[in-house]
Design goal:
By secondary structure, the protein is of the alpha+beta class. The protein has a single domain, classed as 3-Layer(aba) Sandwich (Aminopeptidase), CATH 3.40.630.30. It has helices at residues 11-22, 26-29, 36-48, 100-113, 129-138; strands spanning 2-5, 52-58, 64-75, 78-91, 116-120. Strands 1-2-3-4-5 form a five-stranded mixed sheet, with helices on both faces. The longest helix is centred in the C-terminal third of the chain and has 14 residues, at 100-113. The chain is globular. The N and C termini lie far apart (42 Å).
């Protein structure tokens, strides 16, 4: 596998994989539609602007098999430093259990290049959060927040 910052050549695959990712979200389970156009715009903005990035995982044929979408911004309570926040993290099912750590390490390296001093990763309750916690802890992350969602 190869890892690099994503570009326009991966946009179609990012939108396609994003749809599979979407099926694991609370929003999908509550009947929300996947919006391909919105995902394409988000990905294009992350590729073109300096407040975020996408790391892609490519197979031998340069087909996208995973991604990490990350936004980088001044920390809300102290804008003297930047923090990186993972928006989405996805690996195609046939590659799970093999490349997750490497993808996260590439996301961290890229976040540092963007000036981030901290990185936050998110995991969904129905995507084996115990396994994700083990990986996060192994890489030096500590649990510091839990997010609850309510439809209004």
């Amino acid at each position: 596998m190869k890892f690099r910052e994503g570009g326009s050549s991966e946009l179609h695959d990012l939108v396609k994989h994003g749809e599979e990712f979407w099926t694991h979200t609370t929003y999908f389970k509550r009947g929300r539609e996947y919006n391909q156009s919105a995902v394409a715009v988000l990905c294009a903005n992350l590729m073109l602007q300096d407040n975020g990035f996408i790391v892609v995982m490519l197979d031998e044929e340069d087909k996208c098999q995973g991604f990490g979408l990350v936004v980088v911004a001044p920390f809300v309570f102290d804008p003297s430093y930047k923090a990186a926040l993972e928006l989405a993290y996805y690996i195609a099912p046939k590659h799970r259990g093999k490349y997750g750590v490497r993808l996260m390490q590439e996301m961290e390296k890229t976040a540092k290049r963007y000036g981030a001093e901290f990185m936050s990763m998110i995991t969904m309750e129905d995507s084996n959060p115990e396994a994700a916690a083990r990986v996060y802890n192994k890489l030096g992350y500590t649990k510091n927040e839990v997010v609850y969602t309510k439809e209004l």
